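Many introductory courses stop at the sequence. We go one step further.
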Amino acid sequence: MTAIDPASTNSPPASGLDRISTDERRIRRAGIALQLGAIIMFSLLDTTGKWLNLHVPLLMMVWFRYFSATLLALAMVNPFRHGNVFRSKRPGIQFARAVLLVASTIFNFLALQKLQLAEAVSIGFSLPLIVALMAGPLLGEWVGPRRLIAIVVGFMGVLVVTRPGANFQPAMLWSFSATLCYATYAILTRMIAAQDSWRTTTLYSAMSGLLLTPMLPGVWVWPESWFVWMLLFVIGVFGGLGHWLLILAHQRAPAAILAPFVYTQIVWMTALGWIVFHDAPGPWTLVGGAIVIASGLYLWARERAVRGE
């Protein structure tokens, strides 16, 4: 964009505040676009994982998901330029994060063997509710009575989706376990954010799945086609690129601005489930998902109100 000198126009010069506000809005819009791009990547990751479940062993798929993500992270972080990038001030927390992230991925792919994409993402939307509950004892960020009610309502939405005793599937427990592991992973990430650089944390996250390397010979099956080979590498690119886009988004916009756009994932997951697997979500999934989304949006609005944003 070419700068225009205010003195060359008949209109009054713009104030510094106006110029900053305009630039900030533009940067925030870029952050939102990056957030939406990350959500698309994560939706493609789950779709690819659900398809690969039919063609390769689960642990092999999880290993490839992190192997290719590691290659992508090494290319982006460039450890040769940042020599101390592998050094962590809290290696114990980084190791715990790695284990939780791998466990979350395994549980999620186990769930996707049986659940529709829309069902899995609806249960996954309970993530901010779980994080809000865990933030009190672990981070000292206690929720007030209104937000506690919103959390209870959100979990009622999860019950609408799972419907224990009616249409309950054991795979839904895998999905909830994945969400619980990822919530704990998110809390630990916040705990370590001020101590390790984003480069160090990104590398530890990407390399976490390599913990499965000793198990790889016991589960290895040669992929049946070049297309399966391609997806095994692409699935990690979806994950690594998604996390990278998230980092870029949070560098450009506050988390409170980006948070509501997470719920657009239900659109992508429903569409991909219908296109790839011909799965149409049932009414209970849509109703329960809407309840979970509404409670999450209320938590976001209350968080902004408490912080005076």
